[in-house]
Write a structure and sequence with these properties.
single chain; 142 residues; alpha+beta; 7-stranded antiparallel sheet; 7 strands; globular
Length: 142
């Protein structure tokens, strides 16, 4: 069987040390503050069992209550401050790398398999918007 899934990559350079970036990326109380692509969406609840075989669930909803879904998956590999690899419930693979550029700068790269419902550019735009929101959140927090 040939794997025909297209992969999409988004990235950001964050002005913060890798340890801080990792903590804010993986801690549920922080995830609920940055995990949205636009101001009319939010993540009211996040659960995260950060270990190989562990599961996560981020409840993502429109603030007006018109739509919502659970972003759910299981971790395949975790390397603290370096790598998070997981499989979503629909079997798509995602890899997030954290690269320490220096003591005050971290590059985050997300590579994910596209789903077949929405156009590739729409998916790229949504994931990039969430990553950009994360960057803004990290750089504004102490």
């Amino acid at each position: 069987m040939v794997d025909t899934k297209k992969t999409i990559k988004v990235q950001a350079v964050i002005n913060a040390p890798v340890e801080k970036v990792w903590k804010l990326w993986t801690t549920p109380e922080h995830i609920t503050k940055w995990n949205n692509a636009s101001d009319d969406w939010h993540t009211p609840r996040a659960e995260n069992d950060l270990r190989a075989g562990g599961k996560f669930l981020y409840r993502m909803e429109a603030k007006d209550g018109s739509f919502g879904f659970d972003f759910v998956g299981a971790y395949d590999e975790i390397k603290r401050n370096e790598l998070i690899a997981y499989t979503l419930d629909d079997e798509r693979k995602v890899k997030v790398t954290f690269t320490k550029n220096n003591d005050v700068e971290t590059k985050v790269v997300e590579t994910f398999e596209a789903e077949s419902t929405n156009p590739l550019e729409m998916q790229r735009g949504g994931w990039q918007a969430i990553l950009d929101n994360f960057k803004k959140y990290v750089e504004a927090s102490n």
